[in-house]
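Expect chain and fold; see below:
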Amino acid sequence: MPLVWELTAELTEWLTPAMVRKLNAFAATRGNPVPEDLLACFDPILTDRSRNYEQLIGWLQTQYLDARLPQERRRHFHTLSTFIIDMVGAILRYRHEKNLDYLRLSVPYYRGLRALLEPSQPTWLFSLNHDLCVEVLAAELGMPLTCGFPPSTIEFPQRDPSGKVIGRSTFQLMTRSQVDAREFHFFRDGERGINFVKLHGSLDIFAQREELNYLHLLPRENTAAGWIDALRSANEELIYVENGRRIGITGEIAFADDSGEMQFLRRTILAGQYKFDRRISSNTPPELLEVFRRGLEEATRLVTIGYSLGDAHINAIVLKWIESDGRRRLVVVDPRPRIPPEFAQFENRIERQPMTATDYLNRISGNRLSVAEKGLHIFRRMTRRFRGQRAGRLIRAMRQLNEPR
């Protein structure tokens, strides 16, 4: 999935000041436009290429929290920030749906993930990403994985644009009472598998009802294609049709249940500079931070891959973990590792690995790429520099090279 700056470039290429006004004109037909002077304030922030999308959202959230501003104006800032978070999720979903071949071709370069699995102990994996890449890789590599949800499931009807039922979407269900009681269903000692926790929400996890039950989307088949199809179906076929038009709500999926009543699935993506700040409403379960803390307590070695150590609430937990036991070590895997000043006192217990995730996994696992796979790896990296049809042509070339002869 794209790095933060890649995602920012894709977002701002589409979401220009002109597009914002076009969307605002549509909102005006529903009686809820953002004032032009407020949009004018946002223009230089949106076009500032030194800001990534997290910082764009963070700026809007800061305005929302400014108690000096009129409440109505603050509400408009909140609306804009929620919309951009929704667009980030939409871009990630689109990339999944349009890049299934790319995902499949990427699997050989992550075979080293198997080296992280212990034969009779679970491996904890915590992610700040929202995508389904780990679920896809685990499925394709045959690695057991759980997100801590109980086995109980719930289904909702998928519908075509006319409202006719055409299938079912299945979710694991964790009730609010189970969350409050910390009744998570992770692998335990003696069991082999990945305990996977997405601390900042996910494309496949939703909150439901006022009490905030949580639902985890399940694929029909545990394959790359199965995961992507489940994601597509949930977003395109869980719908509520009124007067021949699908009802759309920012940050939610509105859909008709089996009785035809409107229900809602709230998206859980968490972004911006005020993550888990109670002043900013969020559907992401804060209880997962406690799971992170407890998971670390059992570890003497933490490997971070592609994490820039830029989230204060995550760093605070890691700092407390490393300072409380002199045996603990932090491994930072990043092509250009940067260690924040607050970690300087633990320099002798921090190991830098200046390389990509795939290079690191290949090194620790002994995973050897074939000549064809090495060639494909070059193409794979090149596709990150291309978009649209040019990337598509490269992917087709990769597929042809990888076909047995």
